[in-house]
Amino acid sequence: MAPVPPGIRLLVSFNRDQWYRALTFILTFLLYTSFHLSRKPISIVKSELHRNCSHVSELPTIGSSSGRSDSQKLLLQALHTEMDCSWKPFDKSNYKQLLGAMDYSFLCAYAVGMYLSGIIGERLPIRLYLTVGMLASGLFTCLFGLGYIYNIHSLGFYVFVQVANGLVQTTGWPSVVTCIGNWFGKGRRGFIMGIWNSHTSVGNILGSLIAGYWVSSNWGLSFIIPGLIIAVMGVVCFLFLIEHPNDLKSLYNDGCSPGKSSYDTELLLPKEGSCVQVQPVVVVRSESEPSAISFMGALRIPGVIEFSLCLLFAKLVSYTFLFWLPLYITKAAHLDAKKAGDLSTLFDVGGIIGGIFAGVISDKLGKRATTCAVMLLLAAPTLYGFSMISELGLGPTIGVLLVCGGLVNGPYALITTAVSADLGTHKSLKGNARALSTVTAIIDGTGSVGAAIGPLLAGVLSAGGWDQVFYMLMTADFFALLLLLRLVTKELRSTKSRPISSVQLKEH
After folding, report:
1. DSSP classification of residue 290
2. 3-class SS letters over 179-200
3. Of 271, 124, 243, 249, residue with least CA distance to 176
4. Mean of all residue pLDDT scores within the chain
5. Could you tell me the pLDDT band of residue 187, with boundaries at 50, 70 and 90?
6. Closest CA to 460 of 448, 469, 450
7. How many other CB atoms are found less than 10 A from the CB of residue 86?
8. What is the rounded CA–CA span in Å between residue 295 and residue 240?
9. C-alpha 325: how far from its chain's center?
10. Domains, the chain, ranges and CATH?
11. Is the pLDDT of residue 108 over 50?
């Protein structure tokens, strides 16, 4: 008899519970990757919506106009017309404000919708809720690209699409964080979610590369392709997403202990030697199953308000980079849209490293707030250095992009994942896992307010020079740090290293 291949031995060494955890981890990772993949194209296409044709407009001033023949004048006029390639209505001098208004439309709708999304998500099947949201997001992302195909130049059309897309995309974050929180405990949550949260940066990188491939030839496809991808992933979500380990009890029952009428805390799966019932069994929910938490009840959980406000400023910085970095590199480093988009992905590579690093350190120290505060403190001088990118060579620019991405996105990633999951499963909730969606939505919704304000301010301030944008980012970074000081002090005074979520809630 031939020996069993080592790969097969490895596969069978995992039990069914571990396989389902891996499936949930990978699937939710891919689902939210597609969300960010569909958000990124607008930042790449901005430099194409308003192209720099100033060098052409200067041609008529070259030489003496009196000595120029009529044919030369006509040739220059035709050349200027051919090269005036900005997309109306973004061809005007206030194009930065118009582009900022589009960002604001999406992010403001996202911030408002997020507060409602968590509450709705607790009361609906997550799988169906997420599927509908992804299909709708695919539709509106494609609609933006169809504006190019059908030659649409109405600002109202693009703003409407951005608002609608911002609303439907709020279905994503509370849903995937709730699923991953249901399947993974607190033991190594920072490390696991640090790796898992890299979907944000992976989505940004893929979105940049996909949008950059078509940006100069047909920018409509820069939106249509990502829109189709998120719609397809919505179908995958409907077919395979398992919201909670207990949902599998309708498929698997030990068959040896009939009469159970409530869920256990652990997944009931058949092990070797156990009885497997082929026919599905009827699942009876316990009458004492906790109800959804109220909005005010979630706010009373220790740390929710501080981390929410901190995320407001941290996300302001992160999303300003998300929406404006490629355009800034185009103008400051004098690169074309594709090269600037490709170079901007290094910021997201740094974000992946920073998110994992923040998770590992916070797990080891048991101090989430302190980890965030140190990274925010180091981010400020890095942001200042980044503002001088036009004076740097390619090598230093790459290094600054990586470091800045890690320090900016590290705290943002930690708060939106491990911290949100910790607070959403706080011991004061007495096992009410349904609160996780609401807590996650409150934290990320508050952060999304900053995400809406940042790109809008960047559009306004950049008219007076990019230095003002970076002063704004450093100020926001300082306020994010300031808001964590009380929690940092409490952590440092603690005699026992533990996450901030383990602080005892006073009896009300």
Report:
1. P
2. HHHHHCCCCCHHHHHHHHCCHH
3. 243
4. 78
5. low
6. 469
7. 16
8. 30
9. 16
10. 24-52+88-243+292-501 (1.20.1250.20)
11. yes
